[in-house]
Amino acid sequence: MYSKKLVENIENELEALKGAGKFKVERELEGAQGAEVNIAGKKVLMFASNNYLGLANHPEIIKASKEAVDKYGFGLSSVRFIAGTETIHKTLEKKLAEFLGTEDAILYSTNFMANLGFFATMTNEAFGDETSHLDAIYSDELNHASIIDAFKLCKKENVVKRIYPHGDIPTLEQMLEEDKSKNYRFKIIVTDGVFSMEGYLANLPEIKKLAEKYEALLFVDDAHAVGVLGKTGAGTPEYYDLHGKIDILSGTFGKALGGAIGGYIAGKAEIVELLRQKSRTYLFSNSLPPSVVMASIKALDLLKEELELLNKVIENSEYFREEVKKLGFNVLEGNHPIVPVMLSDAGLTQKVSRKLLDNGLYVVGLWFPVVPEGAARLRFQISAAHTKGQIDQAIEIMREVGKEMKII
């Protein structure tokens, strides 16, 4: 039974969140994810989803998922190392490694679990005859929440954590130079490939040079880039001509590649095998259901067969970004389907988001603590599923609301 004091504390916390404008409202969708969705019986344009290639409701993805249920059942009721590995799991891992240009890959329930599992395993485990060790992590300050939380699982006695200002290559090099003489077991440079709040790309070529110079492992979370960037959609490494040259990649099938669930670590075979043996978020989580596995295999196939999807999302993104800028909105520069429209004020951002939805355009407002104080924004996310007509409709709604709210 809850104590009365605990209930009061929880109620006070919820009221504080509401008072500070930080209370999150989950809008209920009615039906499939797509360029348009139904909310409260009303059809609205969807510009707030990670469904970059439009595969979340693609008929071939749905067909593959249904066939998997018919053949393999709903779930496997087991973790991978007991009775939860079907041949299709190994097929997906092999296909994923080939796609990313790595030696091997390992599936996790989510990208979040993949990141937690990697850092907890690599930094907390003693290898071979080691009885003690000290590792160093160098992380961009804007890295995703799953990376930040993963660091919390790294034992203080085992890991030195250093955070460098976003994209600040000179400061990163200064840190590495300062630690050059220290007897660290190994060093890991950690960065997002695409930073999800801004749509900015990491400067992988320069970071890669530093990794080689200072003999550090390079870890890239490419969740928002795979399926979007690079000539075949293999992400930021391919975009920068570094395909197959990054030590460790993490990512997800929950965004561009079908939009359901499932994460992975891909990289050197020895690291992947170590994770299979010792990563607790892998060993003690149920294996991905067959419907997700088969749909993810199909997503990789579709990306290869229908490159026009990749071209379409880039084309749509460039068009939307330029047209919104022409209206007079403050839009962050970039070349990714994440298009942030900066409004600065949190209260204004909340009001504009609600007004846009009332007018048929669903886009999410972001404010502190999700983004820095004074940097509130609307984060538009463009999809290959959007038609030019739908994008023009969204732009017109932006024009109307912008003028009404005296933003433009």
TrEMBL record:
* Occurrences of domain Aminotransferase class I/classII large (ranges): 43-396
Q: Does the keyword GTP-binding apply?
A: no
Q: Which GO terms describe its molecular function?
A: glycine C-acetyltransferase activity; ligase activity; pyridoxal phosphate binding
Cofactor section: pyridoxal 5'-phosphate
- One GO BP annotation here? L-threonine catabolic process
Keyword Mitochondrion assigned: no
Short name of one Pfam family for this protein?
Aminotran_1_2
Name the domain of life this protein comes from.
Answer: Bacteria
Q: Which CDD domains match?
A: KBL_like
Please provide the record's keywords in A-Z order.
Acyltransferase, Ligase, Pyridoxal phosphate, Transferase
- Record-linked InterPro entries: 2am3keto_CoA_ligase (IPR011282), Aminotransferase_I/II_large (IPR004839), AON_synthase_class-II (IPR050087), PyrdxlP-dep_Trfase (IPR015424), PyrdxlP-dep_Trfase_major (IPR015421), PyrdxlP-dep_Trfase_small (IPR015422)
Gene3D superfamilies the record matches = Aspartate Aminotransferase, domain 1, Type I PLP-dependent aspartate aminotransferase-like (Major domain)
Coiled-coil spans are none
Q: What family does the database annotate? A: Belongs to the class-II pyridoxal-phosphate-dependent aminotransferase family.
> What is the name listed in the Swiss-Prot or TrEMBL entry for this protein?
2-amino-3-ketobutyrate coenzyme A ligase
Organism source for this protein? Candidatus Nomurabacteria bacterium GW2011_GWD2_39_12
